[in-house]
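Thread: "does anyone have the structure for this chain?"

Original post by V.I.:
We have the sequence but no experimental structure in hand. Need at least a predicted one for the grant figures.
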Amino acid sequence: MQKRPSAASRIMRTRLSRDVWLNKPLRLPDIDPLYVWLTDAGSLTARVRARCSRLEVQVLAQSLARPHRDEAMLLGMRAGEIGWLREVLLVADGVPVVYARSLLPRRNLRGGWRLLAGIGNRPLGAALFADPRISRSPLACRRLDRRDARYHRALVASDSAAPALWARRSVFRLKRRSLMVCEVFLPAIRALDR
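Reply from O.Q.:
Generated one for you, tokens below.
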């Protein structure tokens, strides 16, 4: 007779499954309008800039902070380790279209990555794609909902509403030091493709 999994193990399985980032988004109706945004490996900043008259970077936060569990795992950070966190909104013609979250382990905040400390409201993407020494991992994407703190942060910061948001992330490397960039697409992003 097979033993049924305990309630705790069922919860653990559910919790782990929502931490999964996909290598490629599924072709579903709610993703189709975002598919190119989620999969284009070029600079998101340049893509947004090409579709609006005025692009602004609105800095929400720049400080040392604890990463989310999946971010720490991605960057190989130890439990309790802090990193340099930068949160911004990309605002196209006065409308927030992307909430972006960049995280650099504190130990990596030197050398080429020093630029993060003084970048201010300049787009990070422009700096990352301008330096040929910087490599990028493949994009991964995920649907964020009310169970994820990044979902709430994106909606509150942008004064938007949506039952779920799609995000993509990748890791940029410079001399074996890693920087994670996560970009969450706000509902208004769909208007840029019209």
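V.I.: this helps a lot. The chain has a mean pLDDT of 87.
O.Q.: and The helical segments are 7-17, 35-39, 44-49, 69-75, 124-130, 149-158.
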